[in-house]
Fold:
Amino acid sequence: MKEVYLGVDLGGTRIKAGLIDAKGDLIEWTTTETEAHKGREQVLKNLAGVIETLLSKTNVSAVGVAVASPLDPYEGVLFNPPNLPFGTFNIKEFLQEKFNLPIVIENDANAYVLGEWWKGAGAGAKVLLGITLGTGIGGGLVYNGQVWHGAWGLGGEFGHITILADGPLCNCGNRGCFEALASSKFLIETYKRLSGKEATPKVIYQSAIQGEKEALESFRILSRNVAVGLASLCNALNPDVAIIGGGLANAGMLLLEGVRLHFDSLLLDGLKGRIELRLAKLKDYSAVYGVVYKSMKAIKREVNG
Structure:
């Protein structure tokens, strides 16, 4: 009988979920609105509904949930997620009581990197560092197939390393964070400052492809800042592969080549030319693949003691 796992990516806007077998083949996929503005009970109802829909298709060995939140991955406690109405909440306990199945919880950025390590752009890496560039910046580190969580499970908040002392104010309250200088918000603000126009990252990208100088300069500045933050992380953590994902990664080679232009020159001599930069491959599926892989390993540890 095929071994199947259910993975969920619970974000502030959408809930994405799939059934994936132990070989990594996607069997079923579904999405729905999170409806975070309607409060915790509605979000939990929508989350449970997605899980119930997929459980009706087949038996599963475990359920893994990636959440856009600082969390304790061992106890399954969320700590005041910025875009979900939970406060401090034990989501693992809630799901175990409701479904009576093994439940695995992981931060969404960590799950994204683990998914890319298993079946995406990081396949084959010994040490994989990943960042997601979007409204904020998330990230994670996978070493020999294990997510690095830090002492209390909160490791990988790469968006809050400081890359410019006394730089712009970040949402976390500090100044000069990587997130404040390389997120979609920064791109939008930079483009507005240069062009006088308001535009979405997609429109800025399209304008850059068409050769508009303000859009190209906005991406040049963004790419330089991404290179500074990513190289700082690589100098500290020494990965053999680093991947870039998230909404801004949809800019593809425009972003990646801009980062590559500066990246090696910012590395320590022993790392120059040795770290491979790649764009994430699995896109919307990354975090779901990551929690499925983590669930699969958790079940095998239980079976083998």
Q: What stands out?
A: The mean pLDDT is 95. Residues 121-281 form a domain with the Nucleotidyltransferase; domain 5 fold (CATH 3.30.420.40). The chain has two domains: 4-108, 121-281.
